[in-house]
């Protein structure tokens, strides 16, 4: 971080510098900003209040970050499928234990997983998603957050590029929630090369991986393969796949977890799993034999491959 400036900034210069630094860092603490500009905490907070009122920053626990993008800024944050994505995030977050080390992908689905993490979660979240970082740090008791830096891709409001890939390769996580654009009988796919590179890097350091995707992924097409189906342990989605793909998923050992009634209708109840009763958890071998519990209860002995 930069040393204190040898000359006094005007308020306008200081605020421009804060926004520029946030675009590079993603998050800055109040203490760091006071050292950067050689001003008081009160002055920094006044600058941040001004910037937040203008929608340029978002104050969070202990500092400031870039604002969560408005829903119209990207197709991934808008549209009739928003309720479906919320349900997918909730269903996926039910797999997380209070002290787990997890990775959360970028995009709307990754954000919804982060947002739905239980209140008692005190583990570690590794992510390159700026909205996920923001929502986690804004909690009254935020978990440990490891941000993967790099160049910011404004379309998905996330870090990407060689720096992000290198950062991802130096971590280790128990469980990865990976958002995908398309899924077929061979594997999972992404549209963008920059996004695909980060997704593959995260996949390489995860002990277990869970796909999160809307039902559109069964009919959409994307060119860049992320991995063969056998690499993944579960799929959380809002609609049942075509029968042939469902059989292939089962053969590959990918457990299917559906939200609601599995019709992709976004009914908002966030339960259901495609193996029968909504409150069933798959057995340790992923065969679908259920240990009954709340959809939000975490039983590491009952989930396929999510235990030690």
């Amino acid at each position: 971080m930069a040393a204190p400036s040898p000359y006094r900034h005007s308020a306008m210069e200081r605020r421009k510098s804060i926004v520029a630094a946030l675009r590079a860092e993603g998050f800055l603490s109040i203490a760091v900003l006071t050292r950067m500009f050689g001003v008081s905490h009160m002055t920094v907070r006044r600058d941040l209040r001004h910037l937040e009122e203008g929608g340029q920053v978002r104050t969070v626990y202990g500092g400031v970050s870039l604002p969560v993008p408005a829903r119209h800024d990207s197709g991934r944050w808008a549209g009739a499928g928003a309720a479906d994505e919320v349900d997918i995030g909730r269903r996926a977050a039910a797999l997380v234990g209070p002290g787990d080390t997890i990775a959360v992908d970028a995009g709307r689905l990754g954000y919804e997983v982060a947002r739905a993490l239980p209140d008692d979660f005190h583990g570690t979240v590794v992510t390159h998603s700026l909205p996920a970082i923001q929502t986690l740090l804004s909690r009254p008791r935020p978990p440990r957050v490891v941000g993967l830096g790099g160049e910011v891709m404004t379309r998905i409001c996330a870090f990407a590029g060689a720096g992000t890939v290198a950062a991802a390769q130096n971590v280790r996580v128990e469980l990865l929630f990976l958002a995908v654009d398309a899924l077929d009988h061979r594997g999972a796919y992404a549209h963008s090369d920059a996004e695909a590179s980060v997704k593959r890097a995260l996949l390489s350091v995860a002990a277990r991986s869970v796909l999160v995707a809307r039902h559109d992924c069964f009919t959409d097409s994307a060119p860049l393969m992320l991995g063969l189906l056998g690499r993944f342990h579960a799929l959380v989605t809002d609609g049942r796949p075509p029968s042939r793909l469902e059989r292939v998923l089962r053969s590959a050992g990918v457990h299917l977890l559906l939200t609601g009634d599995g019709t992709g209708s976004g009914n908002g109840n966030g339960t259901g799993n495609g193996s029968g009763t909504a409150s069933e958890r798959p057995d340790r071998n992923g065969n679908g034999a259920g240990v009954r519990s709340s959809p939000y209860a975490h039983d590491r002995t009952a989930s396929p491959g999510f235990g030690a």
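The domain at 72-292 is CATH 3.40.50.1360 (Rossmann fold). The chain is about 30% helix and 20% strand.
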